[in-house]
Design brief:
Blueprint: H1 19-46, H2 58-86, H3 89-109, H4 113-139, H5 149-178, E1 181-183, E2 186-188, H6 191-217, H7 225-231, H8 242-265, H9 271-279, E3 280-281, E4 283-284, E5 287-288, H10 297-317, H11 326-351, E6 362-363, H12 364-392, H13 398-421, H14 428-448, H15 450-457
Length: about 475
């Protein structure tokens, strides 16, 4: 029987189903694989050939980075569409996991451009099957309006960030310490072995998911969404109801707003990486902190703050006034992102943007506090958005609309690479200021639009009313 676990929790119950923690572990290893590779990708692309890199110029490397990360978030829409029609969520996750492991292995085995492109292609395809479906699978553990849902997605987000925390640390040690050599005064970095570690992490996660799914998920995720809808007496040819159309519209509206958030946030692997490499004083007690380690700040802050934020959302949901609405939380996220960029302004005024003439380097605390504000913004926006899609998406389009949500990430990541490449001509100061102002302005606009968007969500009708019989 393909049904949602714990559909009717006891009043006041806060305990989560065990399946949440299996998905937590699976996503943790997948994110370990992704962020371990992503954390060093720009460095690998721009490093000289003799030192173990591919010798690309900064602008070309940043554009390729943006294209790759953009496609990583584009293919989930295609993978979600295929999954809805042809296979169960769990089958899609397995296909995606195996394909991504092969992609990382290709980067390890072939240190040439064709090996790079083959590896990136496999990672893009695999992510398309994995990314939307594991989030949708998590949503099926709970009923539409279960008060534990936002809390569950925030806990799930901790799994994402646990993997994202230690993978750049390990990658930094692998390429910069354990497999770093110097011969005849020429340094050689072990980037390919860091890619191998990402492949191994993906394999570990997939083995755990495959062996434990039946025990902790039961039959959830075995049938395609279309077959499940038919078995639930939903007419697949029947048009969407008025309520369903309104909710789908909300998903598209909010997806448009979050493009700005991810354009700014994804500077972490692009312009922030290059700025940290050349303009941040990374020395502590005579030891230089690897540049990739700074990308562990965001997941570290997530791990520290996510339980607090999760508890706040849950506590607010039990008050008379209730929790903040989804658009309100997301507007907070955009404004916090903008404030993070403003922190970088005095740092860039101090250092300038010419990496060949750096008179003084900025203290690393500038970058630390920027990541802190961006993390707070992320907690107000990303897990809330995932939860929102699983609440509002019509059943027969659940994975497809999750893919649409990730399409905003795709657009943003592609734009993020191009925006980062503009630092080569305009400088870091102008780019950081413009991104900060744009994020704050859009956050305020979304806050103003909160009430009309909230009305389109029809949250009161999600439970107890059959949308198939709703207003046409």
């Amino acid at each position: 029987m393909d049904t949602t676990l714990d559909k009717a929790p006891k009043q006041g119950e806060t305990k989560h189903p065990r399946g949440l923690f299996l998905l937590f572990i699976t996503e943790m290893w997948e994110r370990y694989s992704y962020y371990g590779m992503r954390g060093i990708l720009v460095l690998y692309l721009t490093e000289q050939l003799v030192s173990g890199g591919l010798g690309m110029d900064n602008a070309s490397a940043l554009k390729l980075y943006g294209l790759y990360t953009g496609l990583v978030y584009l293919t989930p829409m295609i993978g979600g569409w295929l999954t809805d029609r042809l296979m169960g969520l769990r089958t899609a996750i397995t296909i995606g996991g195996i394909t991504m492991a092969l992609g990382d292995f290709s980067l390890f085995a072939v240190q040439e451009k064709w090996g790079l492109y083959l590896g990136l292609l496999l990672l893009i395809i695999g992510n398309g099957f994995f990314k939307p479906n594991i989030s949708t699978l998590l949503g099926e553990l709970y009923s539409k309006n279960d008060p534990r849902k936002d809390s569950a997605f925030t806990i799930f987000y901790m799994g994402i960030n646990l993997g994202a925390f230690f993978s750049p640390l390990i990658a930094g040690l692998i390429y910069g310490e354990w497999f770093h050599t110097t011969q005849n005064g020429i340094e050689h970095f072990g980037y390919n072995y860091a890619f191998l570690a990402s492949s191994i992490g993906m394999i570990i996660g997939q083995v755990l998911f495959t062996t434990l799914s039946n025990k902790y998920l039961g039959d959830i995720g075995k049938k395609p969404a279309r077959e499940k809808a038919i078995s639930s007496n939903a007419n697949k040819a029947k048009p969407l109801t008025k309520y369903e159309k309104h909710r789908t519209t909300v998903i598209f509206i909010l997806a448009a707003f979050v493009i700005m958030f991810w354009v700014g946030f994804e500077q972490a692997g692009a312009s922030f990486t290059l700025y940290t490499e050349h303009f941040i004083d990374r020395t502590i007690f005579g030891w230089e902190v690897p540049t990739s380690w700074f990308q562990s700040l965001n997941p570290l802050f997530i791990l520290l703050l996510a339980p607090i934020v999760s508890a706040i959302w849950l506590k607010l949901s039990k008050t008379k006034r209730g929790d903040f609405s989804v658009p309100t939380k997301m507007s907070f996220g955009l404004m916090l992102l903008g404030l993070g960029f403003m922190i970088m302004v005095p740092a860039v005024l101090m250092t300038g943007s010419d990496e060949d003439n750096v008179a003084v380097k900025a203290h690393m605390l500038f970058m630390v506090f920027t990541y802190l504000f961006h993390t707070l913004g992320e907690l107000c926006l990303s897990p809330i958005g995932l939860s929102m899609v699983t609440k509002l998406a019509p059943l027969k389009f659940a994975s497809l609309l999750m893919g649409v949500w990730f399409l905003s990430n795709a657009t943003a990541n592609y734009l993020a690479g191009h925006v980062a490449s503009l630092t080569e001509s305009f400088g870091f100061l102008e780019i950081f200021i413009y991104l900060g102002i744009a994020a704050i302005a859009l956050g305020l606009l979304l806050l103003i639009l909160t009430k009309p968007i909230q009305k389109l969500m029809h949250l009161d009708e999600l439970e107890g009313v059959d949308d198939s019989k709703g207003v046409q």
